[in-house]
Amino acid sequence: MLVWIGKNRALFLRLWLPVIAWMGLIYLFSSMPGSKLPKVDIPNIDKIVHFLEYFIFSLLLMRALVNSTKSFNLTALIILSIMITSLYGISDEWHQSFVAGRMSDLYDYLTDSIGSITGAFLYMYMHVYEKIT
Predict the structure, then answer these.
(1) 100 near 35, Cβ under 8 Å?
(2) 6 SS3 class
(3) Please, what is the average pLDDT of the chain?
(4) What sign does the dihedral 30-35-38-40 (CA atoms) show?
(5) Which of 89, 91, 77 is nearest to 116 (CA)?
(6) Could you give the CA distance from residue 114 to residue 93 in angstroms, rounded to a whole number?
(7) Contact 65/81 with Cβ under 8 angstroms?
């Protein structure tokens, strides 16, 4: 059961504000026209960026989900996190298809998903074996 927002607003903000802010940053960067993106001469840098964006997104989301529930099934939260971040990745790629100089790319979406999965499982490992919250 999710922690009631009105009862513990500070906890809600501490857990969920970073998730919402990160989603906003992803949207903001996706809204930048291709001509405004920095030119970096590193092979596949866009895939590295996509992986890191969704890796961090997944870590933040797992932290919020785990700490917003009184009792939870870690496997169910991992699946939920991967689903949410992957769906956001699909919407991000679709959104980019409307931005000048940008395009939707299946490989970017796959990289987003790999970052999401990696982040969720790393969080699970740290939660179970390193006892983080």
Answers:
(1) yes
(2) coil
(3) 89
(4) positive
(5) 89
(6) 15
(7) yes
Q: What is the mean pLDDT of residues 33-53?
A: 88
Residue holding tokens 């866009």? 46
In this structure, are residues 125 and 101 in contact, taking their beta carbons and an 8 Å threshold?
no
Task: Spell out the residues 6+ positions from residue 66 whose beta carbon is closer than 8 angstroms to its own.
Answer: 72, 74, 77, 123, 127, 133
DSSP string covering 66-121, please? HHTBSS--HHHHHHHHHHHHHHHHHHHHHHHTTSTT----HHHHHHHHHHHHHHHH
Q: Which residue has the higher pLDDT, 79 or 12?
A: 79
The model's pTM is 0.88
Cross-strand bridge partners of residue 2: 69
Average pLDDT over residues 92-114: 92
- The predicted structure's pLDDT at residue 3: 47
User: How many of the other CB atoms lie within 10 Å of CB of 91?
Assistant: 13
Q: CA 117: distance to chain centroid?
A: 10
Identify the band that residue 16 occupies on the pLDDT scale cut at 50, 70 and 90: very high
